[in-house]
Amino acid sequence: MNEEKAKDTEKRTAEADTMKEEKTEKEDGVRNGKAADQTQEKARQNEAGKSDSKEKQDEAKSDGSVENGDNAKGSGSGKKIKKDKKDEKIEELTDRLQRQMAEFDNFRKRTEREKSEMFDMGARDVIEKILPVVDNFERGLAGADESDSFVQGMNKIYKQMTKILTDMGVETIEAEGAEFDPNLHNAVMHEDNPDVGENIITQELQKGYKYKDVVVRHSMVKVAN
């Protein structure tokens, strides 16, 4: 009987321990479940907080964009902040046209200057070839009888020729009695003459001419030392 009681007691003790362990496991499971639920709830709250914060930030950005847009519109009513492509193209074409007009004007002026220079060069060349003829007229008329009708006719031709040269802008270079200037005169003879000052031209041997302030032929002169 004692042995049966002992076994029965041992069996009951084992069952009680088993039930106690199962209860403890259930309680632990409940606690773990509650902890997991709390963690999930906190995670959901954090996500909700982030979402609300993002929405507020988006709303703030949107409000700021609207305000900036309104300010831009308000300031743009007086002056455009950025030019459109059409205005930029118009300005580009206008600038290009002005540049081309300036280049054409410079080309026109340069062409006219070159033409004038070429004309002056050609005129000087012709004048230089005519001057010996004028010299011959002057030498022939110097000792001729002015009462002779032939001489009078030659004298008229000479005057007509010199007038044409004068009208073209040809002028004689001042020589006799003037101070010697190497840019205008060509000294071929020298003399000692106490009656005149030093470096003074005492005789003109051949006339010199200028065309538009450019020497065509230097005067051939005698100079006093």
Q: Explain this structure to me?
A:
- With 225 residues, this protein is an alpha+beta fold.
- It is 68% helix and 13% strand.
- The chain is built from 3 helices and 6 strands, in the order αααββββββ.
- It has a 3-stranded antiparallel β-sheet with strand order 1-4-5.
- Strand 4 (209-211) and strand 5 form a beta hairpin.
- It starts with a helix and ends with a strand.
- The mean pLDDT is 79.
- Radius of gyration over C-alpha positions, nearest whole angstrom: 61 Å
Q: What is the topology, as strand order, of the major beta sheet? A: 1-4-5
- Class per helix and strand makeup: alpha+beta
Element-level helix/strand string: HHHEEEEEE
Please give the count of helices.
3
Number of E-state strands: 6
Mean pLDDT: 79
Set down the secondary structure blueprint.
Blueprint: H1 2-76, H2 85-142, H3 149-168, E1 170-172, E2 185-191, E3 201-206, E4 209-211, E5 214-217, E6 219-224
Parallel strand pairs: 2-6
Antiparallel strand pairs: 1-4, 3-6, 4-5
Short description:
The chain has helices spanning 2-76, 85-142, 149-168; strands at residues 170-172, 185-191, 201-206, 209-211, 214-217, 219-224. It is α+β, with helices and mostly antiparallel strands. The protein has a three-stranded antiparallel sheet.
Features:
alpha+beta, 225 residues, three-stranded mixed sheet, single chain, 6 strands
